Amino acid sequence: MMLLRGPWPRRPRLPPTPRPAGRVHPPPRTPTPQVLCVKLCGNLKYSQSHLYSTVVPPDEITINYRHGLPLITLTLPSRKERCQFVVKPMLSTVGSFLRDLQNEDKGVKTAAILTTDGREIPATTLMEILLMNDFKLVINKITYDVQCPKKEKLSMEHATDMENVKSLVHRLFTALHLEEFQKKREHHLLEKIDHLRGQLQPLEQIKAGIEARSEAKTSGLLWAGLALLSVQGGALAWLTWWVYSWDIMEPVTYFITFANSMVFFAYFIVTRQDYTYSAVKSRQFLHFFHKKSKQQHFDVVQYNKLKEDLAKSNIKLNFQDHKRK
């Protein structure tokens, strides 16, 4: 507003009007002060905003608290619009906030949060810890300084009361939703068991066929061993009583027995197991089983893993049933 300097302009005075005699004339009036109208120069909106406005700059990031929750306001880089993000300090993390920012504006290619001295803050940091101090927000290689409003520190008694309230709310939530949670978990276990059984069914059929063939071969090998021992005993008896005498065959039987002992000892050295008929049968059965599995492309490792998962799921399901009772 411009004020003009100098003396006020005066009106030219007129001569007094003649009045009839005998009347009392009122005292002359004081001249009315004049109001000077001044024209504003320049842009009126600019002058008002420059003198009286409190609008936040469009590229500044602000943090305010509304209903006890932090409200982060920033300008989206691609749309050039101000957007507000409500943060839950106890649940949200730095990583979740950056993901929400990128989901809101696809033009955000890179985003990171740094400390005031330039160190990057991990994505697992809670927003409650982040908002305790000032930080820097980097969006598409552009750094913004963010100032966090200072909150009043709670007293020790108030903080203890808040922790007790949180603990009580957590216990109430657990008690009210425990049955619902158990039902959901039981339903999930039943679905998992059905899925595992569906995967095991074709493998069980292939395994049954391989086991039948391996059992037949193992039994045939045992019968072949019995036949070989019978032939050996018959040959020794024929040579002792019909061909030679006992004096000649006695050393032969001794060396045959010693050779069998050497065979049994060699079996222990190779397998680290005692030579028993049940151990020999099991070992031979597994040998035939794995050989047939490779021929039919039966994955033994996958089958064992599925069986273990099924057993664990059944144990968990039984435990859930026991807890409900």
Describe it for me?
The structure is a single chain. This protein has 325 residues and is mainly α. The protein contains 7 helices and 6 strands; from the N terminus they run αβββαβαββαααα. A 3-stranded antiparallel sheet has the order 1-2-3, covered by helices on one side. A 3-stranded antiparallel sheet has the order 4-5-6, with helices on one face. β2 and β3 form a beta hairpin. α4 crosses α7. It starts with 43 loop residues before the first helix and ends with a helix.
Walk across the major sheet and give the strand order. 1-2-3
Structural class: mainly alpha
The main pleated sheet reads as: 3 strands, antiparallel
Poorly predicted regions: 1-12, 17-26, 30-56
Q: Please state the average pLDDT score.
A: 76
Share in β-strands: 5-15%
Helix content range: 55-70%
Radius of gyration: 50 Å
Intertermini distance: 86 Å
Order of helices and strands: HEEEHEHEEHHHH
The beta-strand count equals 6
Shape descriptor:
elongated
Topology:
Layout: H1 44-52, E1 62-66, E2 69-75, E3 82-86, H2 94-104, E4 111-114, H3 127-130, E5 135-139, E6 142-146, H4 156-243, H5 246-271, H6 277-295, H7 300-324
Question: Which characteristics define this entry?
Answer:
single chain; 325 residues; 7 helices; 10% strand
Describe the structure in brief:
With 325 residues, this protein is mainly α. It has helices at residues 44-52, 94-104, 127-130, 156-243, 246-271, 277-295, 300-324, and strands at 62-66, 69-75, 82-86, 111-114, 135-139, 142-146. It is elongated.
